[in-house]
Amino acid sequence: MPSHAPDHADPLSDPHPASAPLSDPHPASAPLSNPLARERAHLTDSRAALRAMRADVEALDLRDVAANWVNAAALHHQVSERIKALADLADTPLFFGRLDYLHAPDAETAEGAEGERFYIGRRHVHDADGDPMVIDWRAPVSQPFYQASKTAPMDIALRRRFGYTGGELTAYEDERLSDPTEAEQTSKLLQSEIERPRVGPMRDIVATIQPEQDEIVRQGIGGTICVQGAPGTGKTAVGLHRVAYLLYAHRERLARSGTLVIGPNRSFLHYIEQVLPALGELQVAQATVEDLVTRPALGAEARGTDSADAARIKGDARLAEVLRRALRSYVTAPTEPCVVVRGSRRWRVPAYELEEMVEELLTRDIRYGAAREALPQRIAHTVLVRMEQAGEAPDDRVQDAVARNAAVKAAVKAVWPPVDPAKLVLRLLSDADFLAEHAEGVLDADEQKTVLWAKPGRGVKSAKWSPADLVLIDEAADLIERTPSLGHVVLDEAQDLSPMQYRAVGRRCSTGSATVLGDIAQGTTPWATASWEEALTHLGKDGAAIEELTQGFRVPREVIAYASRLLPAIAPGLSEATSIREAAGDFSVRAVDPAELDAAVIAACRDALTHEGSVGLIAADARVPALAEALDAAGLTHLSPGEETSAEARLTLVPATLAKGLEYDYVVLDEPAAVVDGEPDERTGLRRLYVSLTRAVSGLTVVHGAALPERLN
Question: Where is the sequence biased in composition, kind Basic and acidic residues (predicted)?
């Protein structure tokens, strides 16, 4: 696999001469005889073409092209978003690879068909004549860049990877996939890109997607897929790139129905928020589960906390049945007839007929609000039948008028009253008798006592709702009125969700599909899922495909081997992750005197900062204040999770509870025993430790004063 740096002439001639139909952009030009110079020239021309594409959109005259101001505003917004999507990011390579086909991909037969050359990049770029200069990585013609190999060349003569420094093209590397005399080798540029130091938010992996990742990314929109991924396998990046791919392949459909990325916390969402815009996708919303279920208009916002036992029970799927029973209890049997007066006539619907209507609607088990809206129409229809029997000829307008009649409204309100979902949950958690009545046979007495508030809330706005309470309100709201569904939802770090949280997410994609990402071994809540099959059932996606990624690209092999010592205790059924990293990485475990722990941690941070890239100091939450003081006293500037690192500020102090999903070039892990002890049980603590150990990209230093957990010895 020849590799070429800018200061060395290419010893090999370009495999496709300028006169070939592979259309070199600068044929036979003397200064561009060097292949690297020609590739740089193509990059320059492609950037110019992209600027021209953007200028064409900016020059559009939108005056008098819309029928009304609403359409005009929508059109202006679409054009504005298009202009943003055409931005040329100076430090981001416009293309990162090249494919030279043996035959034209769209030729009906391979015989006699001439090959074509395609530059693969983050977005499509065409010249003034509409001919492509860069092909979007998501296009079918780009797939061999990720999937082709020596054993399955996919009609590719040459695959070329480009190396960049900033936005400047500085090297290239060739693989002649159809040449039987060339042996398959590991790509040095690919390895270098994977190991490149990271400062700032998460970046895309579009140049380094591996075949097994690409297969997941390009799966169709029709079904849900679950990805079990060990640390460093790129599952988050795969999920984000899958969104980008689906938006490319199904843009109109998803533009109507919407897409959403759900992450575990705000720090995580801030870390990943630049990936999709870098790929030209600006319309994907991001949220946490708590964001989805918070209802400020009702006054239901999380201001309280639950014990671990209370949160676990409130998150149990059995609560859905308790809520359903409690809601249906508001429906009462009618005791009075409904009498509708129209003109000089009185139309009477007896109580027993009203009761039959109510029973029929309850039997259908449709949503509470939908049934409540259907009941007045049922009553009005009965009145219309009476009118027709009396010789009148009413039409639909009469039925609608009867349904709005005051007597009908009063009858409906009496038997099927409106219910506020927050007030329903407030009553359940505050009224022991009401809870006992509707939890009978579902929750035992101890469980009921655990979820009841010690100090009942006086009202919705004054109640100290917990995050688990908000999920119950969301469930109740959906029982009353259907939650709108999106076209596609990506759920990351999914292993930590409770069954009721899965149900809340599932409501958001009930008619769409989902990409579920996580690692059972990293489940760090007391209610963490035991299996993906169980989680997918609660999500409403039974039978979804489950893929497993075990080949790591981020975590050094020594680090992942050390962390994997915990797997038999935290996830005995999972395969141990491997790493393709050739470099072992910097790894050390330092035992120190407990009295000198803070000083030793500061020294380890100073050592880490001598390297290029980001540094994360991860510690048990209880240790964070003391370490912050020690860092300040030592004059070491440090950030909090969610704050963007820069060349001047590369050290982040990370509470262990917020470390999930984040990554740093070098990690200093403070006192593993404290990380374990900070959780309510040993298994959760060991899982939290597993997460903390696997955040490093290039090096890990473990500093401890107390004895290490037994599994790590």
Answer: 1-13
The Cα–Cα gap between 487 and 509 comes to: 6
Tokens of 234: 């790129």
**112 annotated to bind ligand:** no
The backbone torsions φ and ψ at residue 380, rounded to the nearest 5 degrees and listed phi first, read: -65, -40
Q: How many other β-carbons are positioned within 10 Å of the β-carbon of residue 578?
A: 16
Q: What's the confidence (pLDDT) of residue 85? A: 75
Alpha carbons 342 and 347: distance in angstroms, whole number: 8
Q: Is 84 annotated among the ligand-binding residues?
A: no
- pLDDT band (50, 70, 90) for residue 67: low
Residues in the chain: 713
423 marked as binding residue? no
In this prediction, residue 713 carries a pLDDT of: 84
Measured in whole angstroms, the distance separating CA 534 from the mean position of its chain's CA atoms is 20
- Position 243 scores a pLDDT of 94
The answer to whether the annotation marks 230 as part of a ligand binding site is yes
Q: Which phi and psi (to 5°) does residue 676 adopt? A: -65, -45
Whose structure tokens read 């780009």? 142
Mean pLDDT over residues 552-578, rounded?
87
Show the domains of the chain with their CATH numbers: 35-208 (no CATH), 215-299+480-552 (3.40.50.300), 338-415 (no CATH), 557-712 (3.40.50.300)
* Mean pLDDT within 657-668: 91
CA geometry: angle 174, 180, 186, nearest 5 deg = 40
Q: Is 525 annotated as a binding residue?
A: no
CB-CB contact of 543 with 260 (8 Å): no
Mean of pLDDT values over 303-307? 90
Helix (H, G, I), strand (E, B) or coil at 17: coil
608 Cβ contact partners less than 8 Å away, ≥ 6 residues apart: 615, 651, 666, 667, 668, 699, 701
pLDDT at 115 over 90: no
515 close to 243: Cβ distance less than 8 angstroms = yes
Residue 608 CA to residue 618 CA, distance in Å, equals: 13
State yes or no: 223 annotated in a binding site. no
- CA dist 673 and 712 (Å) reads 11
Please check if 130 is assigned to a binding site.
Answer: no
Q: Residue 495 is encoded by which pair of tokens? A: 């292993």
Pairing of β 586-591 and β 696-704 = parallel
Q: Are 241 and 532 in contact (CB under 8 A)?
A: no
User: What tokens appear for 695 in the block?
Assistant: 């955040």
Closest CA to 308 of 495, 450, 519, 432: 450
Cβ–Cβ contacts within 10 Å for residue 348, how many?
Answer: 12
Q: What percent of the chain has pLDDT over 70?
A: 91
Residue 287 marked ligand-binding? no
The residue among 195 and 387 whose pLDDT is bigger is 387
Predicted confidence band of residue 605 (pLDDT cuts 50, 70, 90): very high
CB-facing half-sphere around the CA of 116: CA atoms within 13 A: 16
How far is the first Cα of the chain from the last one, in angstroms, to the nearest whole number?
42
d(CA 255, CA 90): 28
pLDDT of residue 3: 55
Sign of the torsion angle spanned by Cα atoms 390, 394, 396, 402? negative
Both structure tokens of 520: 């059972």
pLDDT by residue (tens digit) across 677-706? 999 889 999 999 999 999 998 899 999 999
From CA 232, how far away is CA 227, in angstroms rounded? 13
Q: Which residue, chain included where needed, has tokens 């107390």?
A: 706
Q: Quick check: helix, strand or coil at residue 411?
A: helix
Average pLDDT over all residues of the chain: 88
- Residues 140-166, mean pLDDT to the nearest whole number: 92
